[in-house]
């Protein structure tokens, strides 16, 4: 387990450093950014890498493979796992742990209390699921919501690059709104509906795992709703300004 964690830390560190090497070639203004902005720029690079990897892995395990197909085997869905699902959870633990250390080390440059809360709850839930081999179906659903992260990061990149008034910024805002609504709001409705229908299975999870399963997802869902409210306000503000510019011209 320690060797795996070390390997994951090295991978994310490599992506972090690679982002710093590639970025000046893509965006000439990178070298003129403040040190705090360069730090966050590279941090969002490996954040995007993690989001893409776990989202692809999660959708494969949840939809394409038969691992969680209830008609494919008799084993309860809460007890199903595989080498690939363990690997996806391990990757996420490596990311959240590395990112949390960076947040603490550079506080408050990379985020405030809400990030401590989000990462802490995520590590607790994912760690228990990996060690016990239980409720990985629900953990993977939550990990799939990371699919919205690249849009969040692109929004920040465009803002820092002075592209806040560009068409790409507006289109990304619309995509972020739609993606967040689908992946972090509506998907949670399915999540809770499925959990309710399989509550007889969830109740058989060991005590700490059971209470984590019924408390951590609702907490994350509330955080997602709060951020969705902020995203909605930002999109409305951007579209209003765009409409005003068109009217004046």
- The proportion of strand residues reads under 5%
> How many helices in DSSP terms?
9
Overall geometry = globular
SSE class: mainly alpha
**Average residue-wise pLDDT:** 90
Distance between the termini: 61 Å
Give a description of the structure.
- The protein has 249 residues and is mostly helical.
- Helix 6 packs antiparallel against helix 7.
- The radius of gyration is 20 Å and the shape is globular.
- The relative contact order is 0.10.
- The model has no long low-confidence stretch (mean pLDDT 90).
What topology does this entry show?
Layout: H1 2-26, H2 35-64, H3 83-106, H4 113-132, H5 136-144, H6 149-160, H7 167-197, H8 199-202, H9 207-248
Helix pairs in contact: 1-2, 1-3, 2-3, 2-5, 2-6, 3-4, 3-5, 4-9, 5-7, 6-7, 7-9
């Amino acid at each position: 387990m320690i060797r795996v964690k070390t390997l994951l830390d090295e991978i994310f560190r490599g992506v972090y450093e690679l982002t710093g090497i590639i970025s000046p070639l893509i965006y000439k203004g990178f070298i003129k950014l403040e040190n705090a902005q360069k730090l966050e720029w590279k941090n969002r690079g490996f954040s995007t890498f993690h989001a893409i990897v776990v989202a692809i892995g999660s959708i494969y395990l949840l939809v394409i493979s038969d691992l969680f197909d209830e008609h494919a085997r008799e084993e309860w869905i809460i007890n199903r796992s595989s080498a690939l699902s363990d690997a996806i959870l391990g990757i996420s633990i490596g990311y959240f742990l590395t990112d949390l250390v960076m947040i603490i080390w550079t506080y408050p440059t990379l985020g405030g209390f809400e990030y401590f809360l989000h990462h802490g709850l995520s590590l607790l839930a994912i760690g228990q699921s990996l060690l016990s081999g239980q409720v990985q179906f629900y953990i993977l659903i939550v990990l799939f919501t990371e699919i919205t992260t690249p849009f969040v990061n692109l929004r920040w990149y465009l803002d820092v690059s002075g592209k806040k008034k560009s068409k790409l910024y507006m289109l990304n805002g619309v995509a972020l709104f739609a993606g967040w609504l689908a992946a972090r709001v509506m998907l949670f409705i399915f999540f809770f509906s499925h959990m309710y229908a399989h509550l007889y299975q969830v109740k058989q999870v060991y005590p700490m795992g059971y209470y984590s399963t019924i408390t951590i997802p609702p907490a994350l869902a509330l955080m997602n709703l709060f951020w969705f409210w902020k995203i909605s306000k930002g999109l409305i503000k951007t579209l209003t300004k765009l409409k005003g510019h068109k009217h004046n011209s």
